[in-house]
Amino acid sequence: PSALREVLIEVPNVRWDDIGGLEEVKQELREAVEWPFKYPKAFKRLGITPPKGILLYGPPGTGKTLLAKAVATESQANFIAIRGPEVLSKWVGESEKRIREIFRKARQAAPAIIFIDEIDAIAPARGAVEGERVTDRLINQLLTEMDGIEENSGVVVIAATNRPDILDPALLRPGRFDRLILVPAPDERARLEIFRVHTRNMPLAKDVNLEELAKKTEGYTGADIAALVREAALNAMRRVLLTLPKRLVEEENEEFLGKLVVTRKDFE
Ligand code: ATP
């Protein structure tokens, strides 16, 4: 039963280098999360307090989850991830308890990052939604927990949403999610970086031109590009499977593996 479900603490292994583009966002996260974890005394001396909550907002598939994981990896913090809709659907009646438990675990595991994906599901403006009483109680619990985070306790909450406009404004007040960071869809340069990340370990034929692909994929998100690259690799595999005798393929011998090269045509 869900009541007994463990709060899962992860140690992610996403690095800054695994994220294409978004250089300013990365820098902002470094300063807001990594620096306070690493240099608490410096913050004290300067008389400034680090944020407790950061809201990443922007279209789906642009790397919000990746960013939260990378900042955890790079600041050697533990990572506890929850998804808004999951809290609502699975933990009805015990959702507040669940939230309390998550924050308790995070304090124990500090430095720790709590990542709440799709926070709009648990925190739409109070009274705005059907079945509001569940979400009202959840928001209140979340606010209580955030207000209770002590300075320099090594716990930071990062939330993500595609719909910042429907969030309960109480969440955005000072001391809560008071740092709003836009994670935009990638421009051409960022798309090129994302193509580079996703083809890093892929044998590419000489005719593959990533610059051109970046140019041609206006409107694609990082998730779209990842899917495109994966599909190209599968096209290459299909092509090779058709041309080689079954025996060679089944042994996965050198000739077979050597032919697995992704060409320009595979991207079409
Ligand atoms: P959602 O709002 O749908 O949860 P998201 O913004 O959290 O999306 P991610 O889950 O971080 O997006 O991205 C989905 C996948 O898309 C990633 O696992 C990655 O493969 C790819 N991706 C997205 N953005 C980038 C990026 N900037 N660089 C490299 N890969 C990316």
UniProtKB/TrEMBL annotation:
Domain AAA+ ATPase: 50-187
Keywords, in A-Z order: ATP-binding, Cell cycle, Cell division, Nucleotide-binding, Repeat
Molecular-function GO terms, alphabetical: ATP binding; ATP hydrolysis activity
Superkingdom classification of source: Archaea
One of the protein's GO biological processes: cell division
GO CC aspect terms: cytoplasm
Family note: Belongs to the AAA ATPase family. CDC48 subfamily.
Protein name as it appears in the record: Cell division control protein
